Amino acid sequence: MLNLAVFLAQIIAMTAAGALIDSVGYFAFFYALGAIVIVAGLVAGSLLQDAPLLEGTGAPASSFLSEFASLFQWDTVRRNRGLFILLLFIIWTLDNSD
């Protein structure tokens, strides 16, 4: 029964999307759809709460921003040399693929 409900919901959504695209235009529809997704993500993200810390563990050693900034230190590149060589090779091959 659930598969039938999903199938009917898809048919209704596609029909409604087609009607909206015909009435407001392709670009306006997808820009509005993108705006709805962004707003929903911002609202949901602001409502999320961190999980409580486990007993026996103290506060985190450093903040998220300091951990993120550590990704751009030269020492990180040296410790993960093979990974960065692979990433540079991928970027180089994608750039020269024409």
Description:
Helix 1 crosses helix 2. The protein has helices at residues 2-24, 26-47, 64-70, 74-79, 81-95. The chain is built from five helices and no strands. The longest helix is centred in the N-terminal third of the chain and has 23 residues, at 2-24. The chain has two domains: 1-47; 64-98, no CATH class. Helices cover 74% and strands 0% of the residues. The termini are far apart. The chain has 98 residues and is mainly alpha-helical.
Properties at a glance:
98 residues; 2 domains; mainly alpha; 5 helices; 0% strand
Poorly predicted segments: none
Overall pLDDT: 87
Report how far apart the termini are.
50 Å
Largest sheet: none
Q: What is the approximate shape?
A: extended
Using DSSP, what is the number of strands? Answer: 0
The number of domains is 2
Count of helical regions: 5
Strand content: under 5%
Give the assembly state of these chains. single chain
The ordered string of helix (H) and strand (E) elements is HHHHH
* C-alpha Rg (nearest Å): 23 Å
Helix percent band: over 70%
**Class based on secondary structure composition and strand pairing:** mainly alpha
